[in-house]
Amino acid sequence: MYFMPVPRFIFTAVFCGIGCVGALLLAGCSGRPTAGFVGVRVAADSATVRVAAGPQYARGAVWQFFWGAHYRDLWALPVTAPVLRLATFAPGGLNPVQAGGSYQSHTLRLRAADGHQYVLRSVDKDASAALPVGWKRWLLGGLMRDQTSVGLPYGAYVAAALAEDAGVYHANPRLVYLPDDPRLGKFRADYANALYLLEERPESDQRRVASFGHSPEVVNTARMLTDLRQRPSAQVAARAYLRARLFDIWLGDWSRREDQWRWASFRQAGRVSYRPIPRDRDQAFFLFDDGVLTSVVSWFLPKFRSFHARIRPGTVEGLTTTARALDRTLLAPLSADDFRQEADSLQKRLPDVAIAAALKAGPLETQAVLIARLGPPLRTRRAQLPAVAERYYEILAKEAWVVGTDQAERFIISG
């Protein structure tokens, strides 16, 4: 199935129209969040809290019929999380140095006394921030905010555990609750009293982090591509990148733009090799099309492919859209046999026991739901990986790129 690109003005008109209709249909009916667990319960020893990541996403049956059930039950489910004490987490404590984030996430960079850096990424997101300030945000902001529930709030833990088995580099997220800590300084008002994922920041010297390959230098995508362009002695481990991309498809993670990657570099005998480190698994297990109106919207945004048991041919195309240019650049040297072999290898690395163990990686309160909801489709999707790899190769082969460097080179094209 081939998806024609949808001009931005057409999508805007359709989504605004649907938003207006939906608002009129549902206003005063089920639009407000349903009553549920709200607030934070601190344990007697103050070491843990019990809190829901997004109780505001709990909605009534009518709202869910039109706008999807998504993962609202897990967002509204109270979970137990350890309290992060900045002064004692690492020797010398952690100091906040820079606020940041993408158009949805709320992040805070932290530095330990030894120079090692961590990052806090908010569990809750705000998709409305992607809208321009003005009438669009006024009209659609609340609806976009509600659609944060399409993401699995604790999916990053499952993804990290599965990546370890798959042989894909990964961060090691930990769920923490950040209290109103004076050590936050100027960031206190914006970051205190919320749930976060705390993980190593994949940059610079990571020799002590096994899941980054003990790399002496981790760089961003722009730096890696510049190095590839400037000298033939720099190469990307294309099979490792292919494995990471097949893993993305298996997880249903469509948000893999260039900034979602870091690159572990390894130098030897005058050459440098780069291996991929996927990051920010916010959209793994994405579930969008389970409402009447969200299903309509998904037809106009092919990249919004939901996580279901069956991976349709069109799903492969949609899920790989955001990294298409990077894929064509880095996977050009590989053959159809390479794609097939990596799919077969990935299948063998992800047996049922590995899937079952990974689904216990999140908060204890979520494990039963995740095992029941994600286990069967993960096993079914695993069986489809060879077909997925074949389709993926066909998509890229439609427009094969010949990639060179700034140096004088000779290309021989055959076939």
Q: How are the SSEs ordered, and which strands pair?
A:
Elements: H1 8-26, E1 41-42, E2 48-52, H2 61-67, H3 72-75, E3 78-82, E4 94-100, E5 107-112, E6 117-122, H4 135-146, H5 155-166, E7 174-178, H6 188-191, E8 194-200, E9 217-220, H7 221-230, E10 234-236, H8 238-251, E11 261-268, E12 271-278, H9 292-300, H10 313-319, H11 324-330, H12 336-349, H13 352-358, H14 367-383, H15 385-397
Parallel strand pairs: 10-12
Antiparallel strand pairs: 1-2, 2-3, 4-5, 5-6, 6-8, 7-8, 9-11, 11-12
Care to describe what's here?
The protein is of the alpha+beta class. It has 15 helices and twelve strands. The protein has helices spanning 8-26, 61-67, 72-75, 135-146, 155-166, 188-191, 221-230, 238-251, 292-300, 313-319, 324-330, 336-349, 352-358, 367-383, 385-397, and strands at residues 41-42, 48-52, 78-82, 94-100, 107-112, 117-122, 174-178, 194-200, 217-220, 234-236, 261-268, 271-278. The strands form three sheets. It has a five-stranded antiparallel β-sheet, with no helix packed on it. Strands 9-11-12-10 form a four-stranded mixed β-sheet. Helix 5 packs antiparallel against helix 13 (352-358), helix 8 crosses helix 12 and helix 12 runs antiparallel to helix 15.
Structural class: alpha+beta
Mean pLDDT: 89
Largest sheet at a glance? Answer: 5 strands, antiparallel
Q: List low-confidence stretches.
A: 1-15, 23-31
The topology string of helices and strands comes to HEEHHEEEEHHEHEEHEHEEHHHHHHH
Radius of gyration: 22 Å
Q: Percent helix among the residues?
A: 25-40%
Features:
five-stranded antiparallel sheet, disordered N terminus, 16% strand, 12 strands, 15 helices, 415 residues, alpha+beta, four-stranded mixed sheet
